[in-house]
Amino acid sequence: MIESDRELSAMVQELWDNDINRLKPGKDYRISLQGKAGDSMAVNDNNDGAGYPLFTFVNENIFKKETFLAFISLLDNYESDTGEPEIVTPEEVAENHKFLDSIIQTPTMKIAHKYLVEKHLSPENETQFKEQLYRIWFELYARRGSSRPDSSGFEHVFVGETRGGRTVIGFHNWIQLYLQEKLGHIDYKGYSVNANSPKPDENKHILALQFSWKNGIKPKGSIFIGVSPEFEFALYTLCFLTSPNERVKVQFSFYDVEIVCHHYNQKHIGTTYPVLLRYQNP
Questions:
Q1: Is residue 172 annotated as a catalytic residue, yes or no?
Q2: Which domain, by its residues, includes 171?
Q3: Mean pLDDT over all residues of the chain?
């Protein structure tokens, strides 16, 4: 591993160890992997590797915790179709700020902030740090093929978007996946593996999968499962600000992971998600 990755890995391990709101697999939630997804891009094909939902149980009391509550309130604020301009109401701006207020009080975000200040990548002042986070995650920009601001890092990564109504882009968050599946908008089609990737494990926290959402298909998505919103926010913000590379390898807990993080104009997150490379022996 190259030196910077080792340093970042140590930071990610610290974030992981301090993610006090993370759910425990088998206890706070259960998933059912079922079969491997097919290669098809069709929404209603018969090549479905999973006849049942991905989530068999989630302890929803956890969603009453402050950061989860604030996060979930943001999920219905977006127009999923790219090309449709986002109208941000004052209430939604207030909800964005409330979410940032709640996460910067958590151990994981405090650790990330301290590190970023030491590296001269973020302001020490909490209000200015929040402004930086707002710009990275919530400021709108025009995605490919659109002339008007129709997207943001937060919407793409955590909520999901559709392109041309047929393709799901982004959508890398397990809470949104669970809530949308519960509403009947998600059809889980099985887990994704290639020749080099490890077989997924229902008790691990990273999963590659295929699903359809509304009328669109996500041929291959990759998500953390059971982690808190603040862990993902802290991790992705760290990767975005510390690494000019769009892919960075980190090792933490049981995982060797590549974090993909595409910048948009160097100011905003275009997309970001984990790719499981292998499990480490504990």
A1: yes
A2: 3-279
A3: 89
